[in-house]
Amino acid sequence: MDRERVLSWTKAERLGLADVLDDLEGADWETPSLCTGWTVHDVVAHLTLSTRTTLPGMVKGMVRARGDWERMEFDAARRRAADFGPAELIAQFRETAASTRRAPLSAPLDPLVDVLVHGQDIARPLGRVRPTPQEQTIAALEHVLASPFYGARKRLRGVRLVATDANWSRGQGQDEVRGPAGDLLLLATGRAAGLTGVSGPGAERLGRVL
Q: Would you tell me how many other CB atoms lie within 10 Å of the CB of residue 25?
């Protein structure tokens, strides 16, 4: 995958999401996101960290969280959400939209996955529709399925994914799940909300594990 293209995609998605955030009202920021235990405010704070996290900071966070990656990420987001209000976080997010920096150990496609998925984490609970561009979403989905970080291999073992809005499918299982690529990306990253847009015998199976 061409690095400059990925950077261009990521910048466009960040700026588009920043425009959405501009329209949110005060109560929207305290709305629970699709990430269990995280508010919209927490998720936006987390998004600003992807270009600001350093290796020493990450190591320190892991020590604090006793090796629990998810706890480390949550704690860092909550601290930043406490330090900065919505307008400040939006400005920070927009300022670094074109940044080439990414969190330690992350791959070039991870920031794109981050903004595509977290964009849905924010928009869907607020009843907002945020379309996911086809080519970018398929690239993100391919990356998630190949990466050991997201746990998709275990989660989707025996399931065949088929996109209904693109010429794309993956997996060899008999339990097929059909739906828009954006919903398949949510399922691959462990979000039960993706089940609302899919069908097939594999959907029931995923519903028991998500």
A: 8
Residue 169: C-alpha distances to residues 13, 40, 55, 160, 162 (Å): 24, 32, 36, 7, 4
- In one letter, which amino acid is 154? K
**pLDDT band at residue 59 under the 50/70/90 scheme:** confident
Q: E strands of the chain, at which residues?
A: 159-163, 169-170, 175-179
Number of other CB atoms surrounding residue 86 within 10 Å: 19
| Res 162: pLDDT | 97
Whole-angstrom distance, CA of residue 130 vs CA of residue 147: 25
What is the pTM assigned to this prediction? Answer: 0.94
- Coarse DSSP helix, strand, coil percentages of the chain, rounded to the nearest 5 percent: 60, 5, 35
